[in-house]
Specification:
CATH topology: Rhomboid-like fold
Helix content: 40-55%
CATH superfamily: Rhomboid-like
Subcellular location: Membrane
Distance between the termini: 73 Å
Radius of gyration: 33 Å
Shape: elongated
Pfam families: Rhomboid
Number of domains: 1
Oligomer: single chain
Number of strands: 0
Keywords: Hydrolase, Membrane, Protease, Transmembrane, Transmembrane helix
Main location: membrane
Number of helices: 9
Order of helices and strands: HHHHHHHHH
Largest sheet: none
GO molecular function: serine-type endopeptidase activity
Strand content: under 5%
């Protein structure tokens, strides 16, 4: 496998930083000018509530809510951009839209806000996609995600905590899984290198190539050369007998 698929770029750091900075900027506007952004969240099964499909990930209820979402976003967005650079923007964009629509369909009659649904999209996509590729680096990334964020799975169930949107979490988990199936990645296979592919390969020194003439016809190697090859596989072992002088002296 050639790891050229994984290339570091400035966007690996810039994308998560900009995304999280924008969340804090929106929250600052909300506090500074006393804007009520909550009504722009997802309000399930209402026409006006559809706007929340786009706006809800950027709206947070308080500083603790925003902080708890910021750290996972920084880590997961960086991992997504580095290991799945070609799919990253689509996963973010369609992840927000699809998880928002599912939340709009199954959610309780309340405003659903916060970027936690996107976090569940990222966790789900990175985990399932890594397992599907069966490539050791991506599988290791999947296992790391499970170890660090595996506890999030409890918050996709109702009545675990009343104030959180378990519907948004569940929608994010489902969305990430669906996107992991829809978006294909390169086949991460180890490239086999043969001796004849080497730039310094000399066919005249290769034992196999020596059995063919210039026209490609198979020829037999002379018996003398065959005997020399057989002799090369064996080496003469010589033994030297050393008298045990101590034993002889004792006998005297």
């Amino acid at each position: 496998m050639n790891d050229n698929h994984f290339k570091y770029s400035n966007s690996v750091i810039a994308l998560p930083l900009f995304f999280v900075w924008f969340l804090w900027f929106v929250y600052w506007l909300q506090i500074k000018f006393d804007f009520d952004f909550y009504e722009h969240g997802i309000e399930p099964r209402t026409i006006s509530g559809l706007q929340g499909v786009i706006f809800s990930p950027f709206i947070h209820s308080d500083l603790e809510h925003l902080y708890n979402n910021s750290i996972p976003l920084l880590i997961l967005l960086a991992a997504l951009r580095y290991f799945y650079s070609k799919q990253s923007m689509d996963v973010i964009g369609y992840g927000i839209l699809l998880s928002g629509i599912i939340t709009w369909v199954i959610g309780r009659e309340s405003y659903h806000i916060g970027a936690s649904s996107l976090i569940y999209v990222l966790v789900s996509f990175i985990f399932f996609k890594g397992i599907q590729t069966k490539y050791y680096r991506l599988v290791a990334l999947s296992l790391t995600v499970v170890v660090v964020y595996g506890g999030l799975v409890w918050y996709i169930f109702p009545k675990v905590e009343e104030q959180i949107s378990w519907e948004g979490h569940l929608a994010g988990l489902i969305t990430g899984f669906v996107l992991s199936i829809l978006y294909k990645t390169p086949e991460y296979k180890k490239i086999i290198k043969y001796d004849w592919e080497s730039p310094d390969f000399n066919p005249n020194e290769d034992k196999f190539m020596q059995r063919f003439d210039e026209e490609g016809n198979f020829v037999n190697i002379p018996d003398i050369e065959i005997e020399e090859e057989i002799q090369n596989y064996y080496s003469t072992i010589s033994y030297t007998i050393i008298e045990n002088k101590e034993k002889d002296s004792k006998q005297e």
